């Protein structure tokens, strides 16, 4: 439960009373108000008893009379002024009490008679002294007070417990309803994260029973009293479906103060004291938000691309809650792709260096998972056709060259060929090796092995290109080939699985060349390597005569020529050259 401080102050007690003064009776009852009153001094005063120390001295004397008889001295009579051990005290100030002797000073004393006597003799034994008295004496209290009664008389009061308006609004919430693609690692398949994390921002006295829901028919049905953050493992389970997000809560803008009877008399409760404050749920209302978001992602689809373009793919949708309003927004990942057409001067080569740039509204990096990555050239040299025969599911060409990720960052990826392509210098023979094979010795050995296997001729050449320039496609310059100048030919790329969408792009990059690289002068090639007819009516300075045997040998030599490389380039030229020297040793070469 969420409780705000938007509430009024609390009364400590509720009662109905009147004040009474100078009442002559300690109990009051007029039928409505009643109660016991307190006694107080209406008039007069009271002086409490007072004490002090008092002192007194008293002189005194005593006489004892003796007479002598036949025996000796005998006491006959006597008298004394001694007051004894106490002395009653009073004075004009009103103090009185009893003093006690604490000392006696004798200043004259005649001792007991001890001398001889004659019968009939008398003796007066007299004493004089001062007696000292002291003690605490008291002055009585003075009380002239007249008493009356005063205080509160109370009436019976009903229970004040009840509901009160605290202020507030009709509901408010912040947070988001979201579905979005995500990955748990670079190599994992994407999943869909579903989020309903709304929270209450409405101004209320109290709220309760928050309720969260995410529903999509046949896929997700989840409700909770706390925010929902869940995952659908296969994004295609939700593809094309509606996802409905809901959030609601109960609130009250009223509170109820609870009182208890803290004092009662014989007529009922006369004082109620505050006990506690609670939300008044009898006046509860419900605030609700609902939003349906389409799951219109293109997960694991294949998209055709041509030209220089940007492809934006939906990877999520979100609805932002702000008070009572909801604003929706789509989340995209963007691929900048250059699939522009290419025009070359002649049948040389094009770099296989396909770069895609990437950005995402989720700020995730570019993911590139294992997937279809191919380059489909229109044609290839005859010796490579079987090796790169198209065995994929894409009927884009008879040939398919596998691609690899050449370089990758969070915002771009470049694809190169998985094999490096090499060219020999003299014959233009083309072969390939895996990109991780960097040994120059292996490269040279492979050139020799594949050249001799294809031509049945001895390899006498050297590799022109290096591994650093191996990600290329070389046009087939076969004289019997189909490709013609100034004609567009399709060169396709298949690049997947990219981004959160794990999308596969099928690029159609058309390519053409302006003129043949090699060929007949009639075709205006860059380089002429084809044999032409002998020109007539030309005077030749040098001539030789051939014997019938030499002619026969030369014919036999020509009949045994091997196949032409690219349809016009001899592969046995050095061998035949040496053989011709043996037939015509006198000719200067």
Your description of this structure?
The protein is mainly beta and 589 residues long. The protein contains 4 helices and 38 strands. Strands 15, 16, 17, 20, 25, 26, 27, 28, 30, 31, 32, 33, 37 and 38 form a 14-stranded mixed sheet that branches. The chain has a 6-stranded antiparallel sheet with strand order 5-13-2-23-22-14, with no helix packed on it. Strands 1, 18, 19, 21 and 24 form a 5-stranded antiparallel sheet that branches. β32 and β33 (412-417) form a beta hairpin. α3 (548-559) packs antiparallel against α4 (573-583). The longest helix is centred in the last third of the chain and has 16 residues, at 440-455. Residues 1-8 have low confidence and may be disordered.
Chain-averaged pLDDT: 89
Task: For the record, give the distance between the C-alpha atoms at the N and C termini, rounded to a whole number.
Answer: 107 Å
Helix content: under 10%
Beta-strand percentage range? over 45%
Give a quick account of the main beta sheet: strands, pairing sense, barrel closure.
14 strands, mixed
Structural class: mainly beta
